Amino acid sequence: MPRIEDVAERAGVSVTTVSRVLNNRGYISEKTRDKVHQVMKELNYQPNEMARALFRRKSNMIGLIIPAVSHPFFSELAYYLEYYADQKGYKLLLCNSNRNIAKERKYIEMLKKNQVDAIIMGSSVLDIKHYLNLNLPIVSFDRTVAEDIPFVTSDNFLGGKLAAKLFIDKGCHHPVYIYRGIGGPHHGALLANARAQGYDEELAAAGLNPIHLQLEITDDDQPSNPSEVVRFLSEHPQVDGIFASSDVIAAEAIQACRQLNKNIPNDIKIIGYDDVKVATLVSPQLTTIRQPIREMGERTIELVAKQLEGEEVPKVNSFPVHLIERETT
């Protein structure tokens, strides 16, 4: 494997000059620059990226911590984050925390050792001090962290109100909000909690009594056996609407209704949240609250890049949501 010394010798320049060409530092004539690049190509020289990062004090890497990339929402989000990061010359280091404190702490240490330039925090079961002590630009996704840390979210409160209003318009009298419990001591900072608040407020204004069902936490947030929903619906046969906190949970609800021979949407109406691809793959196709995941991913990377360039960024970055009505209502 060729070394930087080999490039310098073949090009007839010093190692320092080659290093300056690699890191675009200091004045180098175009002739010398072209010569060094030509030799690098001839020798198939691959620069040591970590060594370059130490020299430049910049790695062009962004750490991304999410609960689980297997979850359709976070999978789609990670796709757009990687796409827009690449557009700006950055690479992502993906970390699945599984909402495990020990695992998240290990990932923080790994990101420090790899000298990432910034962190996108989509999962936080650790105390925020573990992030603040890194002295790195941070962007939080769908959760408040600290007054000086920007976050990207959607209008969760409106999303809940839109779901409740649709139930009211469709004549539902006993709808239920179904969500999966969030592990970790800092779940109260999750902005998604506002979905339930908006939902409850709209129902209460219409004289209806909000009902909630909290499902057990699963390790990967994938659709599980819908037995919990089956049991609940069996015990509460009057339920005529389900608002799920994610499209994944809504898919579980569809399975549960199928087991109980409940017709959708005649016997019971179902509304999901996110509008990920699974919403159009299930049968019947799912009515849901759409979050603009692509735009949210683009803004997140934009906030990271601007902070790295020393620019001021807005702390609150909220996007509108929209009701997408399909076959389940």
From TrEMBL:
The keyword Transcription regulation applies. CDD domains: HTH_LacI, PBP1_Qymf-like. Coiled coil: none annotated. Transmembrane segments: none annotated. It comes from the Bacteria. One of its GO terms (molecular function) is DNA binding. The keyword NADP does not apply. Residues 2-56 form the HTH lacI-type domain. Pfam families: LacI, Peripla_BP_3. SUPFAM superfamilies: lambda repressor-like DNA-binding domains, Periplasmic binding protein-like I. InterPro entries: HTH_LacI (IPR000843), LacI/GalR-like_sensor (IPR046335), Lambda_DNA-bd_dom_sf (IPR010982), Peripla_BP_I (IPR028082). Keywords: DNA-binding, Repressor, Transcription, Transcription regulation. This is LacI family DNA-binding transcriptional regulator. It comes from Paenibacillus rhizolycopersici.
